[in-house]
Amino acid sequence: MDKIGLVTGSKDTAIVLENQLKVFLTDKVKINLYISDDGIESFSGETLLVFSSQALHDEVLSKINIPPVMKIIGNRTVNYDVLDALVSLPSEVPILLVNDLEESAKEVYAALLEIGLDHLNLTLYYPGCQLNVADFEIAITPGEVRYVPRHIQRIYDIGSRIFDFRTIAKILSQLNLLEYSSGSFSKMYLEKIIKIARGLAVSRAEVVKLNENMEQVIHSFNTGLLMYDNDYRIIVCNEVLKKLLKINKYKIEGNTLQQIVHNKKLLSFMQLEQQDSHLELTLDGSEFSVDKFKITNNEITCVSIKTLQNHKMIRENVYKKGHIAKYNLDDIIGQSDAITRLKAIITKLAKTDMNVLIQGESGTGKELTASAIHNMSSRSDAPFLAVNFSALSDDLIESELFGYVEGAFTGAKKSGKTGLFEEANGGTIFLDEIGDISLKVQSRLLRVLEEREIMPIGSNEIKPIDVRIVAATNKDLKQLIEEKQFREDLYYRLKMGFIQLQPLRNRKEDIPALIDHMAQSQASSKVTFSESLMEILMRYDWSGNVRELKNTLTYMLAVREKDSLSVVDLPDDKFFDKSLDLSSDDAMTFETYYDTHPDQDQDLFINEEQAYFLRAIVTMIKLDQSVSRVSLAKNSENSNFVRTENQVRRILTQLGELNMITLNKGRRGIMPTANAYRWIENKK
Ligand SMILES: Nc1ncnc2c1ncn2[C@@H]1O[C@H](COP(=O)(O)OP(=O)(O)OP(=O)(O)O)[C@@H](O)[C@H]1O
Fold first, then answer.
1. Hey, where are the domains in the chain?
2. What is the Å distance from ligand 1's center to 334 Cα?
3. Cα of 655 to ligand 1 centre, how many Å?
4. 258, 424, 502, 594: which has the fewest Cβ within 10 Å?
């Protein structure tokens, strides 16, 4: 169950805001109250802290540590429900305007006039004022309910400022409860928008100012919205809709549907009595998806229009860029502890919606991991977009991520550009090489993460986004923080979930499985690997990790002449990141491998041919015979392994690679190593 902390200054505010949040939050979310007036000692593990204001946040921060969880600083606004009710109060009814002092009562009176509520029949009231209040049945007060005469039941408290729409949207998005198209959030707010809009129609234009907030919300929907009353008179229409239907008129509110909607099919759909219906239609070559539902006791019809094509185009683009999450958990190969743990963590994190930071050397599978998280999460049907920051300049990063509008800057595309955050809406964005971004981009990114909204370059329109962020780096971000190259606050915001990937050299036991898997997926026939080849591949340090191993395999499979691969099929030494120094001291030797893997069958690494020649060498040394290619070839003539000098050379190289013999120039050139004697001992 999600737990959120609501942090306020006073108990009164806490109650008002808690009640407001409860309307939107399901029972699945528990709200813990923290009231500064009562003293706050610590928080108790909430995933999200909502502060009633910036000032309060700063005050709390100065007293105690705020844990590095998601924080939302609320914006508060006049309680529209109350205002809406005031707008509709009849002008003949006498109303008491109650405050604690005469002066402050006058101030409120002036404020009400200023916002256009001048039709109300108000009388000022405050403690000590001589007034017969018996005839009053209604009172308005800015939070001073205690001074309202007892007999008055209808009290409008305009002091209880509530969270504005954007704050609620942020909270819902953080908790994954936001549904823009037809869910409760939009419906509930649309109802309010309508109420206010209607209030405006009957009262004063100045109240528009109060409405800006809501206007911003409807205009920030990605969907076109149109609302009309039962006489088909338009009450609300947003910019997106105007664009979709190519309406040039500046103001269409007040017009009838017939005046605005010229497509017959769409018009009759809109005028149809039937509730909650859906239509797909083609207009000027573009496909649209249209939904209709009724709100406010069936008084208002709301129609939402989305372009299907746009959606398709975005998806096609996504595919084109190859930014589809290709991998699942099963694509992560290996049985080492590290891989087993990794899979368990991925499974757990995929169930949450936390941001995740993946740290690991190049080629260790960061993208693979991000992709598996996405595919196992509830977002798997939505896009998975990957951005690699290392290749992009600051300007490019910003325009890629946030998009821009027409004419935003010189060189901007005429049509503007949809940012990746918007394209990935509902899905996951994978920010690769996050350690490479500048402080400037970091602060923009931080804002996106905090506010969960973006503003495309050159636009003043705020777009809410619902995107999970999985970031990756091969750098030590802690170190970068110390060097002041990376923002600590961004680090913690990204690192809500954390995965450290192990380099391949620390989990060499995964190499055989990786090789098998790669051979199976890349080769059309069954390919085998000689023991000595396998041993060399396991001994190598793979500084380029799985990617380097994969490249090596791809090369060998491509140039192979037969399906049984051996050491001779290895690419040239220069192919490798590090030199393939086969007798290197620090490489894992046959001996150390068996010390750490006693249960392995040693025959895996030395074949019968090699075994025959190794035994021959040891015997010849014992008999003090000279060991050379010539003598070994001659010796083999009477055995099952008749080999030419050239063939003996190949076998000697393999035995050298296996650390079974040393190959020096000179008379005592070929000498068995301690490994060889141990191997022979084991074989007895
Ligand atoms: N455990 C694994 N199982 C199977 N394939 C793997 C594994 N780890 C990595 N790979 C493969 O190795 C290649 C590199 O992986 P990936 O691109 O995910 O690494 P990365 O850490 O994101 O690399 P970079 O930091 O260089 O971008 C990919 O082809 C991936 O499929």
1. 1-78+161-178, 80-160, 321-502, 505-588, 602-683
2. 13
3. 32
4. 258
Non-local CB neighbours of 46 within 8 Å, separated by 6+ positions:
3, 4, 5, 32, 69
Average pLDDT, consecutive stretches of 10 residues, N- to C-terminus, the chain (684 residues): 88 83 78 92 91 87 86 74 72 89 81 68 91 92 85 84 71 64 45 47 36 47 74 80 75 83 88 77 78 69 70 42 71 94 93 92 93 92 81 76 71 68 88 89 88 80 87 93 92 91 94 93 85 86 90 82 83 66 37 39 64 89 82 88 87 85 70 77 69
ipTM over 0.90: yes
Q: Which of 501, 546, 550, 554 to mutate to test the pocket of ligand 1 (most atoms within 8 A of CB)?
A: 546
Give, using CA atoms, the residue closest to atom 23 of ligand 1. Answer: 363
Whole-angstrom distance, CA of residue 285 vs CA of residue 543? 54
What per-residue confidence (pLDDT) applies to 249?
Answer: 67
Q: Which residues surround ligand 1 with Cβ inside 6 Å?
A: 331-334, 360, 362-368, 432, 474, 514, 546-547, 550
Q: Tell me the backbone φ, ψ of residue 184, rounded to 5 degrees.
A: -65, -35
Q: 400 CA to middle of ligand 1, Å?
A: 24
pLDDT for 310: 47
CATH architecture of the domain with residue range 1-78+161-178: 3-Layer(aba) Sandwich (3.40)
Q: Which CATH class is domain 602-683?
A: mainly alpha
For the record, the structure tokens of 509 come out as: 């036991």
Query: How many whole angstroms separate alpha carbon 658 and alpha carbon 252?
Result: 83
Per-residue model confidence (pLDDT) at position 77 = 63
To test the ligand 1 pocket, which listed residue (358, 436, 547) has its Cβ within 8 A of the most ligand atoms? 547
pLDDT at 297: 60
Tell me the CA–centroid distance for residue 239 and ligand 1, in Å. 44
The pTM (predicted TM-score) of the whole model is 0.46
CATH class of the region 505-588: mainly alpha
- Name the closest-CA residue to atom 26, ligand 1: 362
Closest atom of ligand 1 relative to the 365 alpha carbon: 18
Q: In a mutational test of the pocket of ligand 1, which residue from 368, 431, 474 has the highest number of ligand atoms less than 8 Å from its CB? A: 368
In whole angstroms, what is the distance from residue 443 CA to residue 450 CA? 10
Residue 504 has which token pair?
A: 């391949």
Which residue is listed with tokens 């008491």?
Answer: 96
* Topology of the domain comprising 321-502: Rossmann fold (3.40.50)
